[in-house]
Write a structure and sequence with these properties.
This protein is an alpha/beta fold. The chain is built from 17 helices and 17 strands. The radius of gyration is 24 Å and the shape is elongated. The protein binds 2-acetamido-2-deoxy-beta-D-glucopyranose (7 copies). Keywords: Membrane, Signal, Transmembrane, Transmembrane helix.
């Protein structure tokens, strides 16, 4: 069946290639030759090492950065040292001799990789998006079926033989990016460090992924571009507000969780991690949590979980409804983060009201955010047909895009003043026009601005993967092996490196359902250990 589908496509060779999983074949152009090595000695000059930027963020981040890379002449040592987990990888340049672990002070069970990696399995969509930005997406060989990027959706589909990371044969890939440390798989690479960091710190993990592909120079430039775009925009927002004496809209981040196993149905009003930073940098402010805790102290169905979110239970009870009305009374903008299975375009203001048990006939009177243009936002501006959002793929890598999207809705005057008309892509508004100017019965009939739902049909070339381009060692001018003093990078395809993919392809959460599940579970567990 898969073979038939392949024949229907033009990319017969690519399809057949994929039909037989086999050990990755090293393109010798990736490697350094011994002749050249004897002349240069060092294949990782300082221009091709990661640079570190001092990042100041509002979010409390106790550890400045949780990964380190030390460079030798022909190898690099990548370490992740977090409070709960740590891991060390030895990466050595292909064409050079594999270092002896004991001679460089590493334990015998250190995972060793010959780089650049050739064929990887990517269970984590953030890693996939970083690879896209680095111009090495052609080396994705297996990918999570929850991916949004259309060509990656195609790759994981049955048309391409189901190249899902869930079933990547161990010997068919030389690296497996996943969320967790897996001590048992010698080629697994952990990329879990992004969850609780501030947005810019998390985005710097592009440099971590880059090390596995010798793309540090590209990563340094891409991160600087993202960093500058983010800080320029947040500075513009701040100066506009100061100069024009603009008040900060109150922004509430809501999450609805259906009953799941032993975890009861609940509504979370979130205050933790990246939300403070994004809200304030976009010109808004979170609700006053201390005041709410006071006012709600006697509501038995309202708890505070260990990460500081308000959690509401017994959603049908009038007390819970009253608590939610209290929380939302002064809110100008609600961001509904909750998961919608299937076609997210069909989620409207009415769906939101039903999900959060808000009375449709009084909602517009009760809540000013429902009377406000752009008062109700979703993080599903772009998604796949299963409802997995591009936010989970792209948000970690592109805080500049996230901030721009949020400013579009929270402080639009700043972008108007700069004549910036870039459309949002990760965030969308369910109330895109002023309710008073649309229909007599107001906002509840509005269908929202719709989301972009991407499927494999949106992949332009309909090919199973692409031809793997070499990544020449940094000591070559070109891939002919000619020694030069200057160095050049493999050029970037038109839609990546410093640029986001136009087709959209985010997570926090890197949302494989497993992770989502674990996060929900953690949230649920945290909520049961509540405290005031
Ligand atoms: C990694 O963590 C383990 C267990 O917490 C600890 O024994 C070990 O020393 C740590 N290794 C490094 C390199 O930090
Ligand atoms: C790793 O292998 C050990 C021993 O076989 C097993 O107990 C453990 O569950 C495995 N861990 C993972 C993450 O698969
Ligand atoms: C909560 O209950 C206590 C004890 O009944 C009472 O003293 C307090 O005023 C109540 N607080 C609020 C905010 O209603
Ligand atoms: C709450 O109300 C909804 C809709 O009105 C209903 O489907 C659901 O069964 C109710 N849940 C409980 C626990 O009573
Ligand atoms: C999703 O729903 C919208 C609105 O109903 C529709 O226009 C669109 O075609 C649907 N997309 C997919 C992929 O089903
Ligand atoms: C919704 O509000 C209307 C108007 O106050 C009221 O008549 C109706 O009973 C309410 N519905 C629910 C389900 O509480
Ligand atoms: C991305 O590429 C498009 C098309 O080439 C271009 O119009 C856009 O300005 C680029 N964006 C960035 C941030 O470089």
């Amino acid at each position: 069946m898969a073979a038939h589908n392949c024949l229907l496509l033009l990319a017969v060779a690519a399809c057949l290639g994929f039909a037989h999983a086999a050990a990755p074949v090293r393109n010798p152009v990736d490697c350094v030759s011994s002749n050249l090595l004897s002349i240069t000695g060092d294949v990782y000059p300082s221009t091709h090492q990661i640079t570190r930027q001092s990042i100041q963020e509002r979010t409390t981040v106790t550890v400045a950065q949780e990964f380190e890379i030390a460079y030798g002449n022909t190898y690099k040592i990548v370490t992740i040292a977090k409070s709960d987990t740590n891991e060390t990888y030895l990466l050595y340049q292909c064409g050079t001799t594999k270092p002896v672990l004991s001679q460089i002070g590493l334990p015998e069970d250190t995972k060793v990789f010959s780089v650049p990696l050739q064929a990887v399995s990517v269970a984590d969509t953030t890693a996939m998006y970083f690879m896209d930005m680095l111009g090495v997406k052609d080396r994705v060989s297996y990918v999570t079926p929850y991916v949004v990027d259309p060509c990656m959706q195609l790759l994981s589909s049955s048309v391409c033989g189901g190249r899902s990371s869930d079933n990547a044969p161990a010997d068919a890939v030389d690296g497996k990016f996943g969320f967790y440390k897996d001590a048992n798989a010698s080629n697994s690479i952990m990329i879990s460090a992004t969850v609780e960091l501030g947005p810019l710190h998390a985005a710097e993990y592009i440099k971590y992924v880059a090390a596995f592909f010798n793309r540090e120079a590209v990563a340094n430039r891409a991160f600087t571009a993202v960093y500058n775009a983010y800080t320029d925009l947040s500075a513009s927002v701040l100066s506009y507000k100061t100069n024009n004496n603009v008040a900060s809209p109150v922004v509430a981040w809501l999450y609805y969780q259906a009953k799941y196993s032993s975890s009861p149905e609940q509504i979370q009003v979130k205050f933790h991690s990246f939300r403070v930073q994004y809200t304030e940098d976009a010109g808004g402010v979170l609700p006053n949590l201390a005041q709410l805790k006071n006012v709600l102290a006697n509501y038995t169905d309202v708890k505070v979980n260990t990460v500081g979110d308000l959690v509401l239970y017994n959603l049908n009870s009038t007390n819970t409804a009253a608590a939610l009305r209290t929380i939302l009374a002064d809110v100008d903008i609600v961001i509904d983060e909750s998961y919608v299975p299937g076609n997210v375009s069909q989620y409207t203001v009415a769906s939101f009201l039903a999900r959060y048990r808000l009375n449709e006939s009084t909602a517009a009177t009760d809540f000013k955010f429902l009377r406000t243009q752009n008062g109700l936002l979703r993080l599903d501006g772009t998604a796949n047909a299963m409802g997995t959002t591009a936010w989970f793929e792209e948000a970690v890598a592109r805080p500049d895009v996230v901030l721009h999207d949020l400013v579009t809705f929270i402080m639009p005057v700043v972008l108007q003043a700069a004549n910036d008309k870039t459309a949002p892509r990760l965030v969308r508004s369910l109330i895109p026009v002023a309710p008073s100017t649309t229909s007599a019965d107001g906002l509840l009939t509005l269908s929202g601005s719709g989301a972009t739902v991407l499927t494999s049909a949106n992949c332009p070339l309909q090919r199973c993967g692409s031809t793997i381009q070499p990544i020449c060692p940094a000591v070559y001018l070109d891939c002919s092996g000619k020694l030069v003093t200057a160095t050049v990078e493999r050029p970037c395809p038109p839609t990546n490196c410093l640029n986001g993919t136009s087709g959209g392809a985010a997570g926090r959460a890197q949302a494989t359902p497993l992770l989502l599940f674990v996060m929900l579970l953690v949230a649920a567990m945290a909520a049961t250990a509540w405290r005031w």
